[in-house]
Amino acid sequence: MILTGPAIAAARAAGEITIEPYDPDCLSPNAYDWRLGDTLRVCDTDLDAAAPTPYTETAVPGSGLVSRPGVLYLGHTHERTGSETYAQFLNGNRTMGALGIWVHVSAPLGHQGHAIHWTLEIRAARPVRVYPRMTFGKLVFLRCLGAPASYQLHGLKYTATAGIDISRLYEELAGGTT
User: How far apart are CA 141 and CA 158, in angstroms?
Assistant: First the structure.
């Protein structure tokens, strides 16, 4: 079951949902409109799943940054979100898609107990100027059935994510570098 905007606001007020910083104007009928953070990691070389991803980190200036086709950008949400009660589902929105930006196509599920600034995978079909803290997508909260299973109790590799995180698949691959 997806929470409505008013239910998200009530759950936040009750301490069941974390959204920091919170802006009530970002509530929509069934979601919270999340915003792009102010830093991007630019990955514009060939990538190897058995090695850490090389990147350069850049601040997104107030005047914007033009994203280029063929480049992988790793960004983060401006908001830190999470809940021990609800799971989350993060997507781009139609407005960004209409600009030719694909955002967070993989791993849209935020598990119960994982309060984070989401790492975003961003690709552009055409050059598009993006700005820090612009609305970039929608976050929905989902009621879970069954016994709660907090992400933090499972000892998984992204438990301590604090911002933009590169792929850590190399930790699982035989012969991968660390």
Answer: 20
Q: What share of the chain is helix, strand, coil (3-state, %, to 5)?
A: 15, 40, 50
Q: How far apart are CA 46 and CA 32, in angstroms?
A: 35
Question: Which residue matches tokens 């792009």?
Answer: 36
DSSP type of residue 36: B
Q: Which string of DSSP letters, residue by residue, matches 108-141?
A: -EE-TT--EEEEEEEEESS-EEE-TT-EEEEEEE
The three-class DSSP label of residue 9 is: helix
pLDDT, tens digit, for every residue of 122-170?
999 999 999 999 999 999 999 988 877 766 665 665 656 667 888 888 8
Name beta bridge partners: 42: 56, 73
Whether 121 is catalytic is yes
CA distance 59 to 109: 26
- pTM (predicted TM-score): 0.88
> Of the residues 16, 121, 171, 172, which is catalytic?
121
